[in-house]
Amino acid sequence: MKCSACAFEAPIGKFRYLYNARIDSSITMRQCPQCEQWLAVDELLGEAKDVVNPGEAPWGKSAGIEGLAEDVQV
Amino acid sequence: MGQSTARTEKESSVEELKNRREWWFVAEKTRSKRLDYLRKGVWKKGAIGGNYAPGIKIDLTFPQLFIDKWQEHEGEAIMLQKAHALAHVLDNIPIFITDNSQIMGYIGSAPHNIVWHWQGISMVNEEIYNEEGIIPEPEEESLEILANLNDYWGGRTAVDKLARVLDPEDAVKFMSGAIGWGTPTSAATYSTKDFDYIFKGFEAILAEVEERMEETEEKLQGNPSPEILPLYDKLPRWEAMQIVLEAGIRYAERYARLARTLAEHFESDPERREELLRIAETCERVPAKPPRNLQESLQFDHFVQVLSRYETFEGAWPHRPDYIHGPYYDKDVNQDKRLSKEEALDLVGEHLIRTHEVGIFAPKWAREGLQGITGTWVWTMGGVKPDGSDACNDMTVAYMQAARLVRVSNPTFGFRWHPKVKDEVMRECFECIRHGLGYPSMRNDPVLVANTVHWYGHPVEEARTWVHQACMSPCPTTKYGCQPMRMASATANCAKMIEYALHDGYDPVVNMQMGPKTGDPREFKDFEDLFGAWVKQMEWLRNILVRTVNLGRVKDPEFFGRPFLSAIYERAVETGTDACDPSNGDRGNAWVTGFTWVENADSLAAIKKFVYDEKKYTMDEVLDALNANWVGYEEMRLDFVKNAPKWGNDDDYVDDLMVRCLREVSRHSKENRCPSNNTWPLLPENVSGNIHYANLVGALPNGRRLGDALYDGGISPGPGLDKKGPTAVLKSCGKFDHVTDGRAFLLNQRLSPTQLSGEKGYQLWKAYMKTWADLGLDHVQFNMVDDATLRAAQKDPEKYQEVIVRVAGYSAHFVDISRKTQDNIIQRTVQGLG
Question: Which residue among B125, B127, B638, B784 is buried most deeply as judged by most CB within 10 Å?
């Protein structure tokens, strides 16, 4: 797998597994051993998708209705 | 907080801020100047992502004062020795009065200091020595004090002594950290308190002690017989009670003197001068005598809490303040009109702040498991009186309103809902939830009263007095119902039950044989063989925890000693015993907290379906995948996650397994007995143990990898796995009996703040609560903060310091919890109601 931040290449297991906040998703957080950047990884493809910065959501929005009821009802 | 529009929060009207759900700024604009000052002036004592905030220091004055007297009284009965040491602390610890405050008392010598109890656990003492950032300057000098302290207490702490009598194998497995957490001593505990008795005043209790001592001394002068021999041990215990009660009165008088001195010699503002004189009068009155008004009752209460925490680490705060203080509020505000509602609200708001500021050092594992807070201080509100009538009062409403004004993450509230609760009170509960506080949690009072009677045989009138002993478990506040000591060490990491059943009792994470050898699962003929192995592992895991805690409980009076708690426990005063001595009439109210519980049902269901029913995979393949932590098996893992039945979707396939597991545990709960010969029911919940155990529980058949957070809550479905809406979640949770199948069951739900705005939102929520009550669930709590706000808080934590979320049995400021916990909360399903 190739790090999206520093292009370091190694087998996926060398990238430290952090967690998956949604086990129904194949996206996990791993950490590059070289630049220590947090990466969103697609475990099915074995590919680093992107660098994950604070506030970014590799799993997308929450399940359920969040975002569907935008209007404030007063 | 929230998304700012063109106008800044300072220029916005309260209505505009409310519409934007910028609740912190709403609170800022609507609370009194006093509350604003006190709230902003309070130090943050909860750990931020596991570390203490800059400026927070460990208090070294307290242990130095304590140890001086402790060593002087070496050789005396432990309760007496401790009483002398505590009295010396209370007579000499520096005290302070915060500007604008009206409630006195703090545990520590300065407001930025946190204390700890070095008599409890050597490991914690060593951890403090090595903890960066909290050692007071000059550091070298402080480290020398700590080193001397460690030298003296090494081998003498309560847990050190207990370790010498524990079975060595039990001790090693218990201390592995894999199967449970906590320490079996009342050095880290929580105690229920009976304020009907305590509010008699310390002088009245002292008179009672005196009377008992005189009676006993008379008997000792009489005919020699075996009956009088135990009396010799009672006298020093009563003497210890006397010493701490008198010291407690003197401690309050020190505040009275300080307030009077400030008023008479330093204060130039006439209004504040009056306040200081009132503080002086209050502290001269309580806790010596019964309170007469709201300020005195709140002050009495707070002094009792402070004195308790000088004696030990109270990790929870079992309390029912609306019930205790309600009559004084009524007298002051409604009858005598000596206080306006606004003035009363200032006192109530400060009560929350004074509680919030209490900080006690917790070891790293506890900080990880309780991120962002210093303890699970869940105050009980509402409920019924002993005769079954509605107990809600004006103070219930005042606490809810004050909570929205001061917005502290600790204490939080658990509201005892019952069918007679008035709509105005329900609206107050909902407003707190809608303001994003995450509390109150809603508790089903009729169910929990029945549960309390069922499990322990408490009389129903006593059961109706219940308070949350920690996050969730009800405990009566009566003479024989009060539980003096409950340790978090009866906390089971339940996911190990299925993990051990699949590994023949071996723990693949800590690499040791833990549970019994229940066989290689590859050899199991059918699902019943696997389930049988699960039952054996469950029984083993509960047995080891309960054995250890029972021993800790009976040895506590010998190894730790509780003079102050004994002095405020009627049954201890009456019998001349340590409050923790189970022989003094404690009826028993023990429970095993079940962390990481739901994974059992989901994992068993996945194996039952794929291995035994459909034969899609062999057990060999499953174990290979688990042993590889699912690496290289992603397609199979997703199959196990997405196509195996999951708890929380009203699917009988998995729900029946959940019920079956609970019934096995219930059966075993009656076989386990506490020192009072009562039961040990299971209480599934997680605080943030689901994060703490993420790296201690290996891969599971529900599709979880080692490192992933476990499910939050005690019966909450996994994040994103509840696909069929909130009613399906409630229906799943309603399939077992919340009275007889366990002690209590924590359910987290996340709701949409946009959907639940306005009157329509309240009506939707109320209808949901009716379904919840009709299905007989005992608990539910809500997060109502949207994704966008939480993601923005991750990105720019400085701007979102005051966003509060419900973690599990407690609330915390979102920015104080780890990224993993944050993501876990964000990914919880947002349920649409209606």
Answer: B784
Nearest-Cα distance to chain B for A7, in Å, is 22
Sign of CA dihedral B514, B517, B522, B525: negative
Output the CA torsion B4→B8→B9→B14 (10° steps).
-100
Domain boundaries, chain B: 2-30, 57-168, 491-778
| Chain A environment of B644 (Cβ under 8 Å) | none
Classified as helix, coil or strand, B250 is helix
Does the beta-carbon distance from A55 to B718 stay under 8 Å? no
Q: What is the pTM of this model?
A: 0.95
Our CA-based measurement puts residue A40 at a distance from the nearest CA of chain B, in whole angstroms, of 13
CB contacts < 8 A (A, B)? 123
Helices (H) and strands (E) in chain B, counts: 34, 20
Sequential DSSP letters for A8-72: -B--GGGSEEEE-S-TTSSEEEEE-TTT--EEEEETTTTEEEEE--TT--TT-SPSBSTTT--S-
A56: chain B residues, CB-CB within 8 Å: 791, 795
User: Which chain B residues touch A20 with a CB distance below 8 Å?
Assistant: 705, 708
Closest by Cα among B719, B519, B721, B691 to B605: B721
Q: Cβ separation of B794 and A13 shorter than 8 Å?
A: no
Of A26, A69, A70, the CB nearest to B634: A26
Q: What tens digit of pLDDT does each residue of A29-73 get?
A: 999 999 999 999 999 999 999 999 988 888 887 777 654 433 332
Q: Where are the beta strands (DSSP E) in B640-714?
A: 682-684
Determine the Cα angle at B421 with ends B416 and B424, to 5°.
115
* Token digits of residue B487: 């340790």
Instruction: Extract the tokens encoding B430.
Output: 């909902």
A45 min Cα distance to partner chain B (Å): 9
Chain-chain contact of B794 with A67 (C-beta, under 8 angstroms): no
Distance CA B577, CA B209 (A): 12
pLDDT, tens only, B505-561: 999 999 999 999 999 999 999 999 999 999 999 999 999 999 999 999 999 999 999
Residue B230: phi and psi, rounded to 5, are -65, -20
**pLDDT tens column, B470-506:** 999 999 999 999 999 987 778 999 999 999 999 999 9
Residues 6+ apart with CB under 8 A from B552: B162, B183, B184, B185, B487, B489
Distance between CA B371 and CA B827 in Å, rounded? Answer: 18
Q: Does the B491-778 domain belong in CATH 3.20.70.20?
A: yes
Smallest Cα distance from A25 to chain B, Å: 7
DSSP at B53: P
Cβ A62–B634 below 8 Å, yes or no? no
Contact: B823, A21; criterion CB under 8 Å: yes
- Structure ipTM: 0.89
